[in-house]
Design goal:
The structure holds two protein chains of two kinds. Chain A is built from seven helices and seven strands; from the N terminus they run βαβαβαβαβαβααβ. Chain A is α/β, with parallel strands linked by helices. In chain A, about 45% of the residues are buried. The longest helix of chain B has 16 residues. Chain B is an all-alpha fold. Chain B has one domain: Orthogonal Bundle (Non-ribosomal Peptide Synthetase Peptidyl Carrier Protein, Chain A), CATH 1.10.1200.
């Protein structure tokens, strides 16, 4: 791993993104804590990391907006260095049965979870290709592997991420860049907060581990994939779901 | 910039990016057959040219470029350098 390499985590103001930012910083990276609108919380995440004597900075980046992505990467390259570890974590989830699902909600889901990830990959790749080193980790979901009623858009976007992961892995694998995906099961975060208690109980019942996962447990796998030791892990899909999809 | 200088610079960047000796890169060189460049090599070379000359080369414009000479011409046109 290049000395003092920079990692960008999108959607890192809370949940898995925040936990991942901390884990990556602890592994020696300078972490850019990406946020769409929650700048205060992102700054808290960064401050908490710096309190451990590590390096982190909050950075506005709205993956729905190409210009925002461009500006975020430009600013990072100018002030911190090229992004060599990219974690596409920004996610949007809105449940609803397909027969009544609004087009706008479908588009938001696909645009955030899938297109946003693609746009960030495209912007990041040139700076990974040159030095022949890079890590891209896409945060997919157990929903990519198993369908859930009410999650047609979410599942589609997360499954799409796996296709993106595999295609990219084949494209750039020969350049010292790995592209992998993690599929978290049910994790308590801001995004899953609004899940009905009944639904949450059912997930737990379906999970062999008998509990929900923590953001830290997902972050640990992402940090491994981002590290030097995982150089031979490419195009892999790793479930972190307590056995939910086993 | 003059065409001769542009040509030299482009050949130098391509040589570096494609890991071939500079004297092997001439305007007549074909990327695939002569320089052993695959599509990703080509994209990387284009990225390097974009960075060096501050130009943008969209995917559609890359399509017809099969020789070094065509790449030079593409950059020249963007920079307004006369042949």
């Amino acid at each position: 791993m290049p000395e003092g390499a920079v990692a960008l985590v999108t959607g890192a103001a809370g949940g898995i993104g925040a936990a991942t930012s901390l884990a990556l910083a602890r592994s020696g990276l300078t972490v850019i804590v990406g946020f769409r609108s929650d700048g205060d919380r992102a700054e808290e995440v960064a401050a908490k990391i710096r309190a451990e004597g590590l390096r982190a900075h909050a950075q506005a980046i709205d993956v729905l907006d190409e210009a925002s992505i461009g500006e975020a990467f430009d600013a990072t390259e100018r002030d911190r260095g090229p992004v060599q570890v990219l974690v596409n974590n920004a996610g949007f989830m809105r449940d609803g049965l397909a027969v009544k699902y609004p087009t706008a909600a479908w588009e938001s889901t696909i645009d955030t979870n899938l297109t946003g990830a693609f746009l960030c990959c495209r912007r990041a790749l040139p700076k990974m290709l040159r030095p022949r080193w890079g890590r891209i980790v896409n945060v997919s979901s157990a929903a990519a592997l198993r369908g859930n009623p009410g999650q047609a858009a979410y599942s589609a976007s997360k499954a799409g991420l796996l296709g993106l992961t595999r295609a990219l892995a084949r494209e750039v694998g020969g350049r010292g860049i790995t592209v992998n995906a993690v599929c978290p099961g049910f994790v308590d975060t801001g995004m899953t907060e609004s899940t009905a208690d009944e639904m949450r109980r059912r997930y737990v019942e379906m999970t062999p581990a008998g509990r929900v996962g923590t953001p830290e447990e997902v972050a640990a796998v992402i940090a491994f994939l981002a590290g030097a030791e995982a150089g031979y892990v490419n195009g892999a899909v790793i479930s972190v779901d307590g056995g939910l999809t086993a | 910039m003059e065409m001769a200088e542009l040509q030299k610079k482009v050949c130098s960047i391509l040589a570096e990016n494609l890991s071939v000796p500079e004297d092997k890169v001439t305007p007549e060189s074909r990327f695939q057959e002569d320089l052993d460049a695959d599509s990703l090599d080509l994209v990387e070379a284009v990225l390097a040219l974009e960075e060096e000359f501050g130009v943008t080369i969209p995917e559609e414009e890359m399509e017809g470029v099969q020789t070094v000479g065509q790449a030079i011409q593409l950059v020249a046109t963007k920079l307004g350098v006369a042949a």
